[in-house]
User: What shape does this take?
Amino acid sequence: MRRALAPAHAFAMETETSTGLNNRKTVFWAFLGSECMFFASLISTYLVYKGRSVSGPYPTEILDIPVTSISTFDLLTSSLSMVLCLAAIERGDIKKFQFWLSCVIVGGLIFLGFQVYEFSHFVHKGLTLSKNLFGSSFFVLTGFHGTHVAVGVLWLISLLVLSLRGNMTKADALDVEIAGLYWHFVDIVWIIIFTVVYLLE
Amino acid sequence: MTSETHAHGHELAAHAGEKPHPQARQYMMIAATLTIITVVEVAIFYIQPIKQSVAFAPTLLILSALKFALVVMFYMHLKFDPRLFSALFVAPLMIAAGIIVALLFLFGHLVL
Assistant: This one.
């Protein structure tokens, strides 16, 4: 294996792997694979406990499909903004990059706002983490997803701050692409949750 | 890390079996498709004859899988990236799907 001769060349050396692929991107795909199994465990727990609550509120009484459809549309739109953001930095168009990145952040914050509203509404209606099996599995599943969205928003804000300070160029497109992979993953997890939890209530 | 070496690193990654990513127009078309599928999903939910039929759950799951595939292939560029990335993602995804099905058969409502 070739060793880096100086810190300045560390990144370039790092990418010369036996696979010819970038290490960071390879590891990140492996991480997303592990995340699939993590969310599968939560989704299967929800499905196994589905319909076994002995006391209400039950899903049919409490889930609000119109509101969740709007938040789903919001998250899908933020994914579009994310790919346009990546395309902009790959072209070296920093202004467009900052615009689309801001759109993604706003989209993520709106989604989190919807989730805060939904959770507080459910608690107000008597559904808590310990109320019944539906409450436990629902809050854990959607709560972990919401946490992932929040982490994504913080990650994207850090990229925006770096960019506003002039530290993001076309050469940093890979950083944006990896952040984008995370954001799209959060989106595809929600695609599954929206169907399994909300539509197949 | 200097931007020069960083750029060199990105170029190396870009040439390692990656095909060109889609353009903005294609991204817009994918977004429109995703929106249409979501509208269809929600519409199906409100159409009682479909909701009460046996096709309701399979239809929604197929539409959901279609959306999932579109995002992974086009937005996450798996269609254009080297196959190792696909393997790293799809193999755990298959294990995850298998775990869900197995747990539903063991503890859920599904029966053979």
